[in-house]
Amino acid sequence: MPNWPDTRLVDLLGLRHPIIQAPMAGASNPSLAAAVSNAGGLGSEGLGEATPQRVAEAIEAIRARTNAAFNINLFVNPGAPPLVGHKLRAWRDALMPHYRAAGLGDVPAADRGAPVTPSAEMIEVLLQLRPPVVSFHFGLPEAAIVARLKAAGTIIISTATTVAEAIALEAGGVDGIIAQGWEAGGHRGSHRPTKPGDGVGALALVPQVVDAVRVPVIAAGGICDGRGIAAAMALGAAGVQLGTAFLRCPEASTEPAHRALLETATEIDTMVTDAISGRAARAVRSAFTEAMTGRDVAKPAFPALYDFTWPLVETGEASFHLYGQAAPLARTLPAAELVETLAQEALERMGALSGRRG
Ligand SMILES: Cc1cc2nc3c(=O)[nH]c(=O)nc-3n(C[C@H](O)[C@H](O)[C@H](O)COP(=O)(O)O)c2cc1C
Fold first, then answer.
1. 154 Cβ below 6 A of ligand 1
2. Does the pLDDT value for residue 358 go beyond 60?
3. How confident is the model over 120-133, as a mean pLDDT?
4. Distance 103 CA to ligand 1 centre (A)
5. Are strands 70-75 and 239-242 parallel, antiparallel or unpaired?
6. Where would you find the membrane-spanning parts of this chain (predicted)?
7. Do both 192 and 274 map to the same domain?
8. Most buried of the four, 112, 127, 273, 286, by CB within 10 Å?
9. Is the dihedral of CA 27, 234, 157, 340 positive or negative?
10. Does a structural domain hold residue 263?
11. How would you class 121 by CB atoms within 10 Å of its CB: exposed for 0-12, middle for 13-18, buried for 19 or more?
12. Residues 118, 160: one domain?
């Protein structure tokens, strides 16, 4: 067994390495998750707001490929009424030039509003199938649901982007907290929709979260190699969650256009925008996100906004390729080899640093 300086996360989850492959709705899948879990990390499947049936199928598909622990990730959404009246008209007017430029017809006439998730039916599926780990993004469901899942033997983790969110998660009963820095690819795990313009970097956030809570802290954001893992552990993290680093694995469902961007990525390609989904997410810049991010016009809520923006993504007027600021450090390796490489690099780096100290 490798000699990690902090074994709280590996002990909690029964891992060889304190490395979590981030759930990435659309890019993760059961094969990727199982490959990571079989290699001694924690594989995750990002199911966002998928149907309970799809979640059941994913759990079954991962179990068919591994006996090790794995993580099922779901979005928490408080729900929102549809945008109507003059607000809807103003939003449709703001989109019109982009629809024209893309050669699209009319902007959709109505907003369907956002559903509350996870649904009661989803919780029943989780209670019945008992995935070893469930992680939530955008906060936590109510305490009674968390308590029922934990009583069924499932370990619960969730993301914090601030110290206050970390304290709220601990009070809500989580077993571990992902501290997600501003560098991170994908949606900010903020518990309420936030403006896209500001956030705390991992170097500042992780030690402050470590000081504020007792449960193990998992650092996320900008970690793509062993140096990043060693740094996270130096900050007091018990483990790491990496998304961008796994996007180039052959097992990932990363689309070809997304892969092509990753091969030539730089640290300044991306921006945090809420203009595509309705919640802040780090994605590659496009003319649309540059023009619409931070604009003072009310939008339909996450995820109903996709109904309006996805036609623009499909025509290339907008894009929504999610990745983080450390993308140039990511490598094209099979998932198992990547987990092993990351672990070896981190252990060597930590060994070298302690050697120098001594
Ligand atoms: C393509 C992509 C999709 C993501 N989707 C999800 C998701 O569905 N659920 C979730 O909790 N986090 C999601 N994330 C965020 C990750 O959990 C994690 O915070 C982030 O990847 C860490 O930063 P890094 O990309 O620099 O490693 C996603 C990240 C990426 C890059």
1. no
2. no
3. 98
4. 32
5. unpaired
6. none
7. no
8. 273
9. positive
10. no
11. exposed
12. yes
